Structure formats: structure tokens, C-alpha cells
């Protein structure tokens, strides 16, 4: 198994420049979910990528563990206004999962074992901007934080980083997910305070 760390070097921005407007810093890791925490056993866990043409790639837990892993350190921002800096994760880049896949998709939907979904532009999960994370802070990811695996898209509000992830489907059109259908912003950029759709 190979451990890779993205090559982002140089001086970090000052803390004030790393906290989006309307957010406050926390040292805790608040637990927020749309429903109860499911029990997802690794011996039954799979992750599936399905293209818009129906092509499927499926990994078991052991097969997924054998893929190249990275250890990104990122800032995360919740729509409920907390931000946590310098969080360290371990997971597989979405680029690795999509490598060599023929697709014309512009959007993806992330799926979770509890039925939760969230939508993203395809470009927002490529070029080293998204991972399927199985570890946090040097340990296996706890169930309350989405373990055994969650999606990690740190440049968007954290509801886009779906917990208990089971796969992604690729689409040529946008398909809003659970919170987006309930009035949350379709994109969710914390720097633009894109919390809710117009009218909510």
C-alpha cells in the first residue's frame, strides 16, 4: 500500500484569512447528521462508481484498502457556522477512482448507505479536491463522523462531504440531493456564504 501526501508547500495563510465570513473556529469536531448513525460493517462495505453510460467500478473494503492513499491536511467548514483548521485525513483521491473512466459527465451524485445524497459539479471532485476518507487524525474514521468511509470535499460546506458513503453516480445534468431539495444551496461555497437557495 502506498501513502502519498499532496505536494502543497509554502507558508499557510494567516488564520483570519482561512476562516470564511460568518464562521467561528472550533477545536471540537461537532457531530451533525440528517438521521441516526447507521452501522456499516466493512465486510459488507462496497464503493461503486457508475458512469452516465452505466459503466460500473466496484471495490470491496479490502480492494479499496489496497489502492494508493493520501493524507491531506485541510480546513473544513460547516453550514452551521463552525470551521475547523488543519484537519488530517487518510483516503483515496477521487482522481484515483475515476482514472481512465470514459465520461462526458458534468455532475456527480454522492450516495450513502442511509439513503442520503448530495450533488456536486464533476470538476469539484477532480484535480486533487476530493477524497473517499477512511481515516481521521491517524485513526480509522469513527462511525459518528461517517465511518467506515465518507466523502471529503473540503472547499465546500461540509454537508457536501457525505457520511457513510457507498458510491457516486455520474450525470450529464444536475440532480439535487437531500439537503439541496430541502432548500440548501446547490453549490455551497463557504467563502460566498452559499448556505441556502434564494427564498429560504
Automatic annotation (TrEMBL):
Residues 35-179 form the Oxidoreductase molybdopterin-binding domain. Residues 1-28 are annotated as: Disordered. It comes from the Bacteria. Pfam families: Oxidored_molyb. This is DMSO/TMAO reductase YedYZ, molybdopterin-dependent catalytic subunit. It comes from Glycomyces sambucus.
Amino acid at each position: 500500500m502506498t501513502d502519498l501526501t499532496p505536494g502543497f508547500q509554502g507558508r499557510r495563510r494567516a488564520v483570519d484569512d482561512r476562516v470564511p465570513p460568518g464562521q467561528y473556529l472550533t477545536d471540537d469536531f461537532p457531530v451533525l447528521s440528517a438521521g441516526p448513525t447507521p452501522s456499516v460493517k466493512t465486510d459488507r462495505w462496497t464503493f461503486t462508481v457508475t458512469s452516465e453510460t452505466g459503466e460500473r467500478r466496484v471495490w470491496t473494503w479490502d480492494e479499496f484498502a489496497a489502492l494508493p492513499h493520501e493524507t491531506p491536511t485541510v480546513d473544513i467548514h460547516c453550514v452551521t457556522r463552525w470551521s475547523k483548521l488543519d484537519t488530517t485525513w487518510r483516503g483515496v483521491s477521487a482522481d484515483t477512482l475515476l482514472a481512465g473512466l470514459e465520461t462526458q459527465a458534468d455532475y456527480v451524485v454522492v450516495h450513502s448507505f442511509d439513503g442520503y445524497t448530495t450533488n456536486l459539479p464533476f470538476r469539484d471532485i477532480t484535480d486533487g479536491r476530493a477524497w473517499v476518507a477512511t481515516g481521521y487524525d491517524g485513526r480509522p474514521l469513527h462511525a459518528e463522523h461517517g465511518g467506515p468511509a465518507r466523502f471529503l470535499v473540503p472547499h465546500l460546506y461540509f454537508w457536501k462531504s457525505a457520511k457513510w458513503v457507498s458510491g457516486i453516480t455520474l450525470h450529464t445534468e444536475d440532480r439535487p440531493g437531500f439537503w439541496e431539495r430541502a432548500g440548501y444551496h446547490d453549490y455551497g461555497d463557504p467563502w460566498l456564504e452559499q448556505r441556502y437557495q434564494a427564498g429560504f
